[in-house]
Amino acid sequence: MHFEAYMDQRRACVEAALDKYLPRPDQPPAKLHEAMRYSVLAPGKRLRPILVLASAEAVGGDIESVLPAACAIECIHAFSLIHDDLPCMDNDDLRRGRPTNHVVFGEAMALLAGDALLALAFELLSMHSESVSPQRVIQATRMVARASGTWGMVGGQVADMQSEGTEVDADTLRFIHARKTGALLTASACLGAMLSNASESQLLCLQEYGHHIGLAFQITDDILDVVGDVSKIGKPVGSDLRQDKATYPKLYGLDQSIAMAKEEVENAVAAIESLGVLAEPLRSIARFIVEREQ
Asked: What is the pLDDT of residue 226?
């Protein structure tokens, strides 16, 4: 299947499942549910949940059985975006080409919508097919929790905040990106396979793949903040510069940053060579990460 058709099909599959699992807007508390759906169902690439599906496929798994887990990852991602956009954090008023959640629903409701999405994510992670052992479900849940919290996304966000306005070295920058963005992408790249009874050697390959695409993704995000088109990326450009954030272009320059992102993609592709033809969607996703315009 052509890559664009593959992504469109998987995206539609994920979005139908999200619509099913998210609370209906006519159920009380209606305004909270409306706020949750506003951010989760906003137009997006669905990269992280598609990675969950693709990693399941790469080890011969069934995507239907891992759809709840894929939706859990997207809920966590949406929770992080809602909170990142708040005035106390990045204070952004545009996300995915639309007003941010707190602009539409107010700060308190946005905060609670993010909290509810995080809770829903772990409810969804508990849903699994009978073919998956309880031990694997626990392992997968623990992995996602670590990727989301102080050892991953939240910890990376703190390090990013504390680095604003300071001179950051290469190791610190890599630490920030590996946790803030890379941790959840790595978990996404392993989750579907883990819930499809992948071997330990397969999971190690996918973990390395996820590490490299996580760095490639954030480096590319840094680049797009410099050269991106607001009509394509759906959020203001230049915000990293205005907030004096630690970025790859700031430390290495634009040309070297582009080269580094491409190198991370090649490392990611090499990491899953042993998975064979079933992992071809994962290879295409890795290349897409540095070629995207949003």
From this structure: 85
Residue 39 tokens read as: 């951010």
192 CB-near residues (< 8 Å, 6+ apart): 51, 52, 53, 54, 55, 56, 57, 61, 63, 66, 69, 70
Q: What is the three-class DSSP state of 244?
A: coil
In 78-113, which positions are buried (b, 16+ CB within 10 angstroms) versus exposed (e)?
bbbbbbbbbeeebebebbeebebbbbebeeebbbbb
Q: What is the mean pLDDT of each run of 10 residues along the chain (294 residues)?
A: 93 98 96 98 96 98 96 98 94 91 98 98 90 92 97 94 87 92 96 97 98 94 79 54 75 93 97 97 95 73
Could you give the CA distance from residue 227 to residue 289 in angstroms, rounded to a whole number?
A: 16
Nearest to 237 by CA among 293, 285, 169: 293
Angle at which helices 63-85 and 134-148 cross, to 10°: 20
